[in-house]
Amino acid sequence: MPAYAIGNLHPKPVLDEEVLTYMERIQATLDPFGGHFLVHGAQAREVREGTWPGAVVIIGFPAYEDARAWYDSAAYQALIPLRTRHMAGDVLLVDGVPQGYEAAATAARLRASARPA
Fold first, then answer.
1. Count: domains in the chain
2. How many other C-beta atoms are found inside a 10 Å radius of the C-beta of residue 80?
3. Domain span at residue 94?
4. pLDDT the model gives residue 117
5. Which of 81, 103, 69, 65 is CA-nearest to residue 21?
6. How is residue 69 annotated by DSSP?
7. Which residues, including other chains, have CB under 8 Å from residue 34's CB and lie 6 or more apart?
8. Are the beta carbons of 7 and 57 closer than 8 angstroms?
C-alpha cells in the first residue's frame, strides 16, 4: 500500500541559500526508498474549506516503511536543518489506500461494526 510524506511549509519571501541546497539534495535521499514528488511547493489554487497557509509538498513512497526509513535515514536527517532553520511547517507520514479502495465499502464496515449485537 502506498504511503505519503506531506508537508505544509511556510517559506519566507526570499529563499535562503541553505533552502536551495536542501532542494538540490533531497532527491538523492528519496531515491533509495522509491520516493518521488507528487506536489512540490505548490500554493493552494483555492481553499474551499478552512484555511491553508503555506506551500504543499507531497512525496509518494511504495509503502509506509519506505517513507519512515527515508525520514529516519542519516542522509535526510542531515538535510532537515537546512530547511528548518529557514522555514516553519508541519510534516507528517500517512498511509495511502490500496488499489481499488472504495469509501462506500469502508462506510458499510463502520455501519456494521456500530450496530448493537
1. 1
2. 13
3. 3-114
4. 65
5. 81
6. H
7. 61, 62, 66
8. yes
CATH number at residue 94: 3.30.70.100
Span 49-108, pLDDT tens digits: 999 888 999 999 999 999 999 999 999 999 999 999 999 999 999 999 999 999 999 999
The count of C-alpha atoms lying within 13 angstroms of the C-alpha of 50, restricted to the half-sphere facing its C-beta, is 3
Residue with cell 504511503: 3
Q: Give me the amino acid identity at 63.
A: A
Query: Residues 35, 59: contact at Cβ < 8 Å?
Result: yes
Over 16-51, what HEC string results? CHHHHHHHHHHHHHHHHHCCEEEEEEEECCCCCCCC
pTM: 0.89
d(Cα 31, Cα 76) in Å, to the nearest integer?
11
**Angle of helix 64-72 relative to helix 74-84, nearest 10 degrees?**
70
| Predicted confidence (pLDDT) per residue in 8-31, tens digit | 999 888 889 999 999 999 999 999
